[in-house]
Amino acid sequence: MPKTPTKPASLPNSADPDNPPERRPPLSRERIVRAALRVMDEEGLEAVSMRRVGRELRVEAMSLYNHVADKEDLLTGVIETVMSDFEFPPDADDWKESARRAARAWRDLLKAHPLVITLMSEQRKPMTSIQALRPMEHALSILRTAGLPDGETFRAFRAFGGYIQGYVLAEVANMFGGQEVDIHLEDIARLLPTEELPHIAASLPHLFRCDFDEEFEYGLDLMIRGLEAKTASGSG
Amino acid sequence: MPKTPTKPASLPNSADPDNPPERRPPLSRERIVRAALRVMDEEGLEAVSMRRVGRELRVEAMSLYNHVADKEDLLTGVIETVMSDFEFPPDADDWKESARRAARAWRDLLKAHPLVITLMSEQRKPMTSIQALRPMEHALSILRTAGLPDGETFRAFRAFGGYIQGYVLAEVANMFGGQEVDIHLEDIARLLPTEELPHIAASLPHLFRCDFDEEFEYGLDLMIRGLEAKTASGSG
DNA sequence: CGTCATATACTTACGGTGTCAGTTAGTATA
DNA sequence: TATACTAACTGACACCGTAAGTATATGACG
Fold first, then answer.
1. Which residues of chain B have pLDDT under 50?
2. Cβ–Cβ under 8 Å, residues B230 and A222
3. Nearest CA to CA, how far is A174 from chain B (Å)?
4. Which nucleotides of strand D are protein-proximal, with an atom < 7 A from a CB?
5. Measured CA to C1', what is the nucleotide nearest B69?
6. All residues at 6 or more sequence positions from B141 whose CB lies less than 8 Å from its CB, including other chains
7. Do A45 and A119 meet the contact criterion of CB atoms below 8 Å apart?
């Protein structure tokens, strides 16, 4: 008996006296994307399925397709939404300080949703929405004030951007250790061929108890000093 | 008729006169991992399924489980295999040149298998196999010769490593454009709100026709100069 | 009121996924 | 020859993205 509507479920039923209307707010791309982001943050990237997002909104998976083209479109929306949450720090007098602030803000954003970086890595297409481009515009404007020749601004942006993304990726992915994997790393520390990998062995304590904030600043300093040296000595 | 063995298939049949033995080489973790790497390189990350890898080796998916614990283990193996293909460049007299060579080798490796970077981003666990650690050891040994104080070597490694990974990630993921997406980017160039994003608009030509090799060297130079400045002026 | 159009949510179904559990065949040893 | 072991295969389950079709609520217009 496939067609016995035992009850009209409890869906949008405008005239049902006993139970209240119980109208869910209407679906929208915004609500769907936010739900997907929530699921991603709380349960991981693998958990983000159309069915799971639908359940989050108490809706069947196929209903989502009224608002997003497909799953890839949904994930693109997630990236754009995260980008649009970028908090622009106030400009400082010194371009170096402005650059530092922007870099920190960028890192904070990526760390607030550690999986977007994997998402971007999977999508492999440039970000085109205006919200996603605004932080980039901000960064370019700062680098301009560093006195770079016209064609070099974008190079510097790529260099800084690369560093920030790469650093955070290594950080959140636990690529070279970190507090969260201490026990495991201490195990491998025991059976590490110390004579074959002496420098790694020597670095092990720094691998364990590293202050990521401090180390991030260190690399940032490297880039800024390098840029400074370059602008001082003319175009390299 | 589920149980009529019409033929013993053509599996390891030691005594079959008409058709030759046709013995496939025995399965092994190595062969499986290499097959997975091949599928990944040729058909993308999504294509790497147990069934697909099995088909590659003319074997059912479940047979792979005799040699790998699960899919994650297989993918870990892929990463380790790629790492073990790292080609150590000869050391130069100058540590700066050595660092440059190592950085290039690292980038070359990541670009040879552009999807391993996504893979590492997904795995989110440190690399522990000796092959995977050897390139890291090499990098650390170079940075030691730069005259860094003991505790700073690893920081510098993280900074350089972050830059390289991040740059290549942005490069292969087409995050900020590149030749492969020219047409698409030229489209968005037309409808870019130039007055709202002036610096991006000004950078568009560099976004289109950028020389990734050259830009990579630029950022590398930034880091090296920064490190130089730091070692010259004492511990920063 | 009736009726039609539109929008939006639901249902079904297909071929794919990872992998648990059970089966089979070929080989080495007792 | 009997036994044990290894390494392949088979079937099943619960999930996935999504094409195609169906049902219902709402608004427009008579």
1. 1-22, 235-236
2. yes
3. 5
4. 7-11, 15-21, 23-26
5. C19
6. A199
7. yes
B126 close to A185: Cβ distance less than 8 angstroms: yes
Alpha carbon of A25: minimum distance to chain B alpha carbons (Å): 33
Picking from B133, B226, B139, the residue whose alpha carbon sits closest to that of residue A175 is B133
pLDDT of chain A, 236 residues: tens digit per residue: 233 333 333 333 333 333 444 456 788 999 999 999 999 999 999 999 999 999 999 999 999 999 999 999 999 999 999 999 999 999 999 999 999 999 999 999 999 999 999 999 999 988 888 988 999 999 999 999 998 887 899 999 999 999 999 999 999 998 887 766 666 666 777 788 999 999 999 888 888 778 999 999 999 999 999 999 988 765 44
Maximum CA extent, chain A? 83
Q: In this structure, is the CB of residue B236 within 7 Å of any atom belonging to strand C?
A: no
* For the segment 10-29 of chain B, residues whose CB is within 7 A of strand C: 11-14
Nearest nucleotide (CA of B2 to C1'): D10
Read off the DSSP letter of residue B149.
-
Global pTM reads 0.89
B222 — phi, psi (to 5°)? -55, -50
Chain B: residue whose CA lies nearest to A214: B155
Give the type of residue at B39. V
Taking residue A159's Cβ as centre, other Cβ atoms within 10 Å add up to: 26
Nearest to B74 by CA among B110, B115, B123, B111: B123
Contact B181 A222 (CB under 8 A): no
DSSP single-letter state for residue A101: H
